[in-house]
Amino acid sequence: MTVEVRDVPEAKTYEARVDGVSEVAGVAQYIRTTELIAFVHTEVDPGYEGRGVGSALARVALDEARGANLRVLATCPFFAGWIDRHPEYQDLLYQSRSRVSD
After folding, report:
1. pTM here?
2. Residue 61 burial (10 A CB sphere; 0-12, 13-18, 19+)
3. What's the sign of the alpha-carbon dihedral 59, 73, 66, 9?
4. Which residue of 10, 25, 41, 69 has the lowest C-beta tally within 10 Å?
5. Shortest CA distance to 12 belongs to which of 48, 38, 44, 45?
6. CA distance 38 to 20
7. 30-81 pLDDT, tens per residue?
């Protein structure tokens, strides 16, 4: 099975398609600034769950974030968990620089 992932900036999503089929198998929604990309929601069609679609979405999106020199804010539980399991991507995580405390 081949998973193709592409960024669709006008929709603020990464979309995954399987084996050249036109239907979308999964999406990762994001909010992007010049310095940061926040992944806010990931959804895989139930017919494609457990087949690597979510992992392909995460890997491509994070590789592109690295290439664009963006920090990553993983508010989506799927992305947060995926990064936890793949330490080679943890250096992308956004770290607050604020020193303000209550």
Report:
1. 0.91
2. buried
3. positive
4. 10
5. 38
6. 28
7. 999 999 999 999 999 999 999 999 999 999 999 999 999 999 999 999 999 9
| d(C-alpha 39, C-alpha 49), whole Å | 19
Residue indicated by tokens 């936890």: 84
Separation between Cα atoms, residue 66 and residue 82, nearest integer Å: 16
CA distance 45 to 15: 11
Helix/strand/coil percentages in the chain, nearest 5: 35, 30, 30
What pLDDT, on the 0 to 100 scale, is given for residue 1?
Answer: 84
CA distance 17 to 38: 22
Helix and strand totals (H; E) in the chain:
2, 5
